[in-house]
Amino acid sequence: MSDRQPLSRDVQSARLSAAEYDENFSDLHAPLDWHEAKVEAERCYFCYDAPCMTACPTSIDIPLFIRQISADNPTGSAKTILNQNIMGGMCARVCPTETLCEEVCVREVAEGKPVKIGQLQRYATDHFMESKRPHPFTRKAETGKKVAIVGAGPAGMSCAHHLAREGHDVTVFEARNKPGGLNEFGIASYKSTENFAQREIEFLLEIGGIEIKTGQRLGEEIALDQLTSDYDAVFLGLGLKNTNRLNLEGENAPGCEDAIDYIAALRQAEDKSILSVGRNVVVIGGGMTAIDIAIQTKLLGAENVTICYRRGQDAMNASLYEQELAQTHGVKIMHWRQPNSIKLNEQGEVCGLEVETTSDASGKLSGTGEMQIIQADQIFKAIGQKFDSTLLSDHQVELEQGRIKVSDTRQTSHQKIWAGGDCIVGGEDLTVVAVEDGKIAAQHINSVLQG
Amino acid sequence: MADLTSNFLGISSPNPFWLASAPPTDKAYNVERAFEAGWGGVVWKTLGSEGPPVVNVNGPRYGAIYGHDRHLIGLNNIELITDRDLYVNLKEITEVKKRWPDRALIVSLMVPCDEESWKAILPLVEETGADGIELNFGCPHGMSERGMGAAVGQVPEYIQMVTEWCKKYYSKPVIVKLTPNITDVRYPARAAKAGGADAVSLINTINSIVEVDLDNFAPVPTIDGKGSHGGYCGPAVKPIAMNMVAEIARDVETAGLPISGIGGITTWRDAAEFISLGCGNVQVCTAAMTYGFKVVQEMITGLSDWMDEKGINSIDEFMGRAVPNVTDWKYLNLNYVTKAKINQDLCIECGRCHIACEDTSHQAITNMVDGKRHFEVIDEECVGCNLCVNVCPVDDCITMEPIAGMDPRTGKPIDPEYANWTTHPNNPSANTEAAE
Ligand SMILES: Cc1cc2nc3c(=O)[nH]c(=O)nc-3n(C[C@H](O)[C@H](O)[C@H](O)COP(=O)(O)OP(=O)(O)OC[C@H]3O[C@@H](n4cnc5c(N)ncnc54)[C@H](O)[C@@H]3O)c2cc1C
Ligand SMILES: Cc1cc2nc3c(=O)[nH]c(=O)nc-3n(C[C@H](O)[C@H](O)[C@H](O)COP(=O)(O)O)c2cc1C
Ligand code: SF4
Ligand code: SF4
Ligand code: SF4
């Protein structure tokens, strides 16, 4: 066949030394030490009606928690954070603060240097968790009410914690063998180091009244009907599933991979040297996942990593900061390129990607006909994920745009079912938004259950 | 370039920056390093009488308070006068003065409050060739319990008496160093003048506890579980020192008495402020103890550059220039009306002015206008207090603008003439004739 190219293919594991892997997959930002935190905290103006606080999806009282750090009370600071956002530790690591709180910090506006809110939040929450203090919240008297939560990601676990705090009994059903959702399987490894996702889950469970059942998949081991009859309320925090398809020939050939699956394997690999990575890697997409797979393959030792995105820089879902982070790691970002065909070698393996230049000059995105082949030992698909709507195929729960439709209180069309996180319509696909969804749903569930 | 030469009491020094009597001037080694760095003069660390020297604590002797980033803004100490032998000090003073004839060298003294003690030590000091003496009536701890230092400085009669002895047994200038630990600094200053003092210097350190250790519930510095009050100095004391200097400078009884300004002087600007309040020169301790002797280079160049810019040629030209403008509250013009004004181009919308005025002042700054975050002064409510200016984190963002015509707050016309409280109708003891 004419599109089988005689190009050599180079995919290998163990490209680096153990020391290099350690270095590459350590913390992206070293945590602040006490003095650094204090100096940074003192930069905060303790704004009135602070814009940062309004920008935080979980409404953390940022001026207060920062002031508590500067007044030598990191424990109180952590409580302020955790009271609004029980996953404040993870959010401190993964939130794109540059498009949330730090973007509107008055010092960003004034001098282009926001208070490092994320780093300070990490300082306080790390201090709290490392000092092994008793859990900051106490559970109210047991109500005898039972709530089922499906999905142990940030949405589900945040909901679980708030409900447990109110005295309800919570059972979390999780399909995988470990809780955490994308905190455990998706977030870039240099953002969540030292098993933080699991440590945070353990911390969260200290409240009591939460049982996690792993290996329980809705649609297989468990059924929604059963849950609605056995429990007083159900919360769905299912996240997303399938990565969208390219719909190109060769998509199933060795070397053409789903970025999400690869990242999950990477996150679970204690020894990163077992991961095979190409010398030339091409990533298709423009969001956080594209950036993360690009940087992490580079860190695994890939020589050339190129992101192809079909529109311009402004349209990328990844923030400017994330794009720059990729670039400083040596990732090349090509805008206005869409995949046209996958090139395979004699053995039927991926060896290149043909891309077509695009333009939106006509008001609609279209190919210009100009082609270019990029050498690729591996192609990663990172063009967005879909909600697995077959899970709710009995139509008990109304969908919209392929995701679950909810009210302001995160209640679905079914009176006993609430939902939140990536699986609901209009979500922003951010950890912190999932946490807030779980919290809002829990507040409503609680008010319904308390009658 | 401006002439920084100082001729305080006829003692010449290349600049008005002297090191105050304290650890930086404890011995020849330090003093010579200071002169090499450019200091105009020193007041040698306070000497006591002949005999076994005092002893200091062997635990920590300093405590501090900090601003941002451990920026030291206040220091407290429980150190005593020199703990070195009198004759060693006198020998070093003699030698240093010989080697550095162009620098001022003053000897600080503190001996028991009897004529004999003073009569005994003064000829020894005279022999050193030093330019003058400073009487330490200020040390607030350790020495005052022995009837010296602040114990003398708090009793005007003693000040006068000791000053008289010094003038009797010593031929060169006598400076009396005042303690701030009194209720009205004019009384000790008047006593010093009555005793024949050539000048006063102030302030010495302020009684203080800078910190309580909340683990041990004891003052810091803590010595074996206990702490004692110390003497406070550094940038934090400057406002207190300047007020005391101004009080003496504008007191009719002490008007014209030369003053050596001390207390928190850290930059050229601090020095210029003290001089404009009537000081002939300034003395520095904490700034040198925090940053080393090199700080004087900033002070010298800063003062000189500022004088050049202002067209001021000598220290004398601006000395005391601010004194006539220090007045009593009752003479302030009540017809001078100002309103705060926010420069919207500079405002970063932190909201601090709003909440300060809203919660603690006069509800005169908006936070929302037409549903948008916006900070604007409401002239109808603003009393012109300046609080918003003080809390705004942006330089020159809020200014106080004098207004004329109608005051929107009172709805009454503003009298363009000066009028003060002494003639105000609300003042029960007003001078009614003038109010007419
Ligand atoms: C590669 C990648 C990087 C990202 N990086 C960031 C970042 O840096 N910052 C940021 O804020 N956000 C980031 N995100 C987005 C963020 O991870 C998600 O928005 C967030 O995890 C959503 O939480 P969730 O609880 O809704 O879903 P998930 O985290 O996906 O959790 C869903 C859980 O439900 C379980 N589940 C699914 N189906 C079933 C079923 N049928 N039965 C039982 N259990 C089921 C899953 O196993 C999983 O544990 C990233 C996402 C990806 C993919
Ligand atoms: C450790 C220490 C010891 C001091 N010892 C003396 C002293 O022996 N004699 C004296 O007159 N003043 C003494 N002082 C007071 C200083 O001379 C000076 O008056 C005071 O510190 C205020 O100036 P500053 O703010 O520049 O430090 C001492 C100050 C300090 C910090
Ligand atoms: S906007 Fe910035 S300065 Fe203001 S409270 Fe928030 S972090 Fe502090
Ligand atoms: S000057 Fe005082 S009264 Fe006027 S706006 Fe400012 S704080 Fe308010
Ligand atoms: S304090 Fe200053 S910067 Fe802040 S809102 Fe007021 S005027 Fe603007």
From TrEMBL, chain A:
Q: Can the keyword Oxidoreductase be found in this entry's annotation?
A: yes
EC number(s) given by UniProt: 1.3.1.1
Annotated catalysed reactions: 5,6-dihydrouracil + NAD(+) = uracil + NADH + H(+); 5,6-dihydrothymine + NAD(+) = thymine + NADH + H(+)
A Pfam family that the UniProt record links to this protein = Pyr_redox_2
Using the record's annotation, list all stretches that form the FAD/NAD(P)-binding domain.
145-438
The UniProt keyword set, sorted, is: Oxidoreductase
Which intervals hold domain Dihydroprymidine dehydrogenase?
Answer: 23-131
- Which GO MF terms does the UniProt record name? dihydropyrimidine dehydrogenase (NAD+) activity; iron-sulfur cluster binding
Q: How does it assemble?
A: Heterotetramer of 2 PreA and 2 PreT subunits.
The function of this protein is: Involved in pyrimidine base degradation. Catalyzes physiologically the reduction of uracil to 5,6-dihydrouracil (DHU) by using NADH as a specific cosubstrate. It also catalyzes the reverse reaction and the reduction of thymine to 5,6-dihydrothymine (DHT).
The name on file for this protein is dihydrouracil dehydrogenase (NAD(+))
Automatic annotation (TrEMBL), chain B:
**What span is annotated as the signal peptide, if there is one?**
none
GO CC terms on record?
cytoplasm
Task: Read off the InterPro entries from this record.
Answer: 4Fe4S_Fe-S-bd, 4Fe4S_Fe_S_CS, Aldolase_TIM, Dihydroorotate_DH_cat
GO terms (molecular function) for this protein are: dihydropyrimidine dehydrogenase (NAD+) activity; iron-sulfur cluster binding; metal ion binding
What is an example of a Pfam family matching this protein?
DHO_dh
Write out the catalysed reaction. Answer: 5,6-dihydrothymine + NAD(+) = thymine + NADH + H(+); 5,6-dihydrouracil + NAD(+) = uracil + NADH + H(+)
User: What does the UniProt keyword field contain?
Assistant: Iron, Iron-sulfur, Metal-binding, Oxidoreductase
Q: Where is the composition biased (Polar residues)?
A: 420-436
Matches recorded under CDD domains: DHPD_FMN
At the top level of its lineage, which domain of life is listed? Bacteria
UniProt KW Zinc-finger keyword: no
EC number(s) for this protein? 1.3.1.1
Region: Disordered; residue ranges are 408-436
Residue stretches spanning the membrane: none
Q: Does the keyword Iron-sulfur apply?
A: yes
Q: Which residues form the 4Fe-4S ferredoxin-type domain?
A: 338-371, 373-403
Task: Output the Gene3D superfamilies linked to this UniProt entry.
Answer: 3.30.70.20, Aldolase class I
Functionally, this protein is described as follows: Involved in pyrimidine base degradation. Catalyzes physiologically the reduction of uracil to 5,6-dihydrouracil (DHU) by using NADH as a specific cosubstrate. It also catalyzes the reverse reaction and the reduction of thymine to 5,6-dihydrothymine (DHT).
Give the multimer and partner information: Heterotetramer of 2 PreA and 2 PreT subunits.
Protein family: Belongs to the dihydropyrimidine dehydrogenase family.
- Put simply, this protein is called dihydrouracil dehydrogenase (NAD(+))
Q: Which organism is it from?
A: Maritalea mobilis
